[in-house]
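so i finally got all the pieces together for this one. its two components total, 339 residues if u count the protein bits. some of the lines might not be protein, just check the labels. i wanna see the whole assembly predicted at once instead of chain by chain like last time, that was a mess tbh
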Amino acid sequence: MRKISLFVLPLILFAGLAIFLFQGLFSNPREHESTLLNKPVPSFVLPDLMNTDLTYTTEVFVGNVTLLNVWGVWCVTCAVEIPFLEQLKNEGKHIVGLYYDQDIDPDFGIKTVERVQQEVEQKLGQLGDPYAYNIFDVKRDLSLDLGVTGAPETFLIDKQGKVRLHHIGDINPRVWQNKFESVYQELIAE
Amino acid sequence: MIRFKTLILVLLTVLSTSILASEETYQFETDAQSALFFELTKELRCPMCQNQNIADSDAMIAADLRRKVYQLVNEGQSREQIIDYMKQRYGDFVYYQPPVNATTVWLWLLPAFFVCFGIVFVVRSRQQKPVSQDETKLQAAEKLLEEDK
């Protein structure tokens, strides 16, 4: 009896440890559940990137299933992602950009809006423009309220303006297939 | 030569001040607020870079969080209010002290369990009686010794 337990106990401990570590191989340390899931998008009043006289509030999400894509011209992965987003747009998906600039210091802004617009126009001219419009997160406040950690990140927002999915990192065909497709179809059907 | 060295020295001084100038400086009305700010930026975790607090991290998100902490501290919010504000947006992940719940309770239970297990193991092995003598084996050994003589 003693001998068996001396053999089995370490084996069980080892198996447990092995399973724990094996799972760790496939977990993404950057991924953590969004606290906003199934909650409405936090309120905001922000200008349109290209026409700053135009302002948006959470109202803009009502009645449409929206992909809110956080991006910036300075973000390398965003440039990789944009052609695929354009493909999604051509399939009829409603994609809105949440634009924020790295070089604008909220306390001592050093970059003019015109300069930002120019850069964006140039970038989207090269890569294609998947966005219905871009919300300009001037002081990155909405990003902070949304729990954005960097760019690119994408939120799937339902017709009531609630966040249903928060993806950190780029969207590519694999991510779309595994993570977005089924939820998106569900939301469209709602 | 001396002139050249002086020139380099002057250049280095100029450069180093410009680097200092790019660091953020936050001013507080009271010492308590400043202390709270430094305490919180050490305890809040950068959501982007995993194992750095927001005081150490150079990521933009860390800078934004520091700015937010500063803003909230200046508004007179308490330590708990600010931590809650951050948790609401970035989850429990953002604060280095995890809450006790069904998944995290093992962080406290497992070490306690191992300590108990160890104590029981040590106590038991001490109590163990010396291996009982086998009479027949003893006799056989005696015999061998006899034969050797």
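Chain B is about 65% helix and 0% strand.
The interface with chain A takes residues 47-48, 50, 59-61, 64-65, 67-68, 87-91, 93 of chain B (CB under 8 Å).
anyway lmk what u think
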